[in-house]
Amino acid sequence: MADDDDGDKQHDATPHRRQQAREEGQVVKSQDLGSATMLVVGLLAMWYLGNGLATSFARITREHLGGEAWMRVDVHLFLSHIVTLSADVGMALLPVLGTLVLAGVLVNLGQVGFLFLPQKLAMDWQRINPLSNANRIFSTTSAVQLGFGLLKVALISTVAGISLWGERERVMILSDQEAGPIATYLFSVTFWTSLKVGASLLILAVFDYGYAYWKHEQDLKMSHQEMREEIKSQQGDPQVASRRRQIQRQLALNRLSEVVPKADVIVTNPTELAIALKYDPETMAAPVLLAKGAGVLAQRIRRLALENQVPVVERKELARALYATVEVNEAVPADQYAAVAEVIRYIYQLKGKKLPGQRAAA
């Protein structure tokens, strides 16, 4: 019976699915988190570097706006002054702008890591086609984003209103003060109000990132059908793989039917392993492993040995050692000579044969 819930995404995404989504640019990212972080970092940079920045701009103002009216002199001197003025302003703003750039890079790397997608630079007309994007425009995600936008407006208005309402009494007496203290006070009120707004937006952005993470995980979830397709793409069609294993097993069994009857002895574990050995003193320097098997193959080797009257000898340790260290058609290693020679000698005695060394001694 077919699954009724093939379209329901119930399975967590596989590592391959996650990597594929990342290569397509589907990552967890909150634009609000980046914007709020940049706002807070910028305000803190202005607060920390404000004195130095004000001093630098005061010096620039004295040097370039005082003294001789340099804009009336020749063009070359005018251009030289413009270059000098631009360099001075740039050097004055460099700490603040550098801090903002660094914060922007870090907050984006913290969200998505290093991600290079040159294919996203290509023009995709479907992304600006209102007909093909109607579902995306009128989706749950769009509704949530709209709700977050309205919430941000309300939050900014509320925080700013509360902050300014608390300063209403001092604002009423500003007219009695001089321009300097008024400017200082207005800057202080503006700065701290902006910082409170930025901190509130940052908190809201954390929730926005949490929603983006949850939505990303939901989008990556896989249905039963997608899981089956994933398994097929990664491991191949199960039917084809099963058929391949069947053929390999049949080839192995056919080979056993050819080589086991030629063996001199079968060393067993006794039921888990079976090793077929052959030794011809005239042509071989050492016994050779003709076949080995575990489980079903071991049973097949023992059955063939009984059918072809090949002696079966139980040597647990020897069977394990030969199965683990010797491949098919390889000679027995020197450290196993003594154990294998004992088995070969035993088989020769059963058959009434003598090894060449025994005949020479006789």
Automatic annotation (TrEMBL):
Keyword list, A-Z: Bacterial flagellum biogenesis, Bacterial flagellum protein export, Cell membrane, Cell projection, Cilium, Flagellum, Membrane, Protein transport, Transmembrane, Transmembrane helix, Transport
Biological role: Required for formation of the rod structure in the basal body of the flagellar apparatus. Together with FliI and FliH, may constitute the export apparatus of flagellin.
Spans annotated as Disordered: 1-29
Gene source species: Anatilimnocola aggregata
Membrane topology summary: Multi-pass membrane protein
GO biological process: bacterial-type flagellum assembly; protein secretion
PANTHER family: FLAGELLAR BIOSYNTHETIC PROTEIN FLHB
SUPFAM superfamilies linked to this entry: EscU C-terminal domain-like
Name assigned to this protein: Flagellar biosynthetic protein FlhB
Compartments it resides in: Cell membrane
Transmembrane segments: 33-54, 100-117, 137-165, 185-214
This protein's GO CC annotations: plasma membrane
InterPro entries according to UniProt: FlhB, T3SS_substrate_exporter, T3SS_substrate_exporter_C
Protein family: Belongs to the type III secretion exporter family.
Domain of life: Bacteria
Pfam entry (one): Bac_export_2
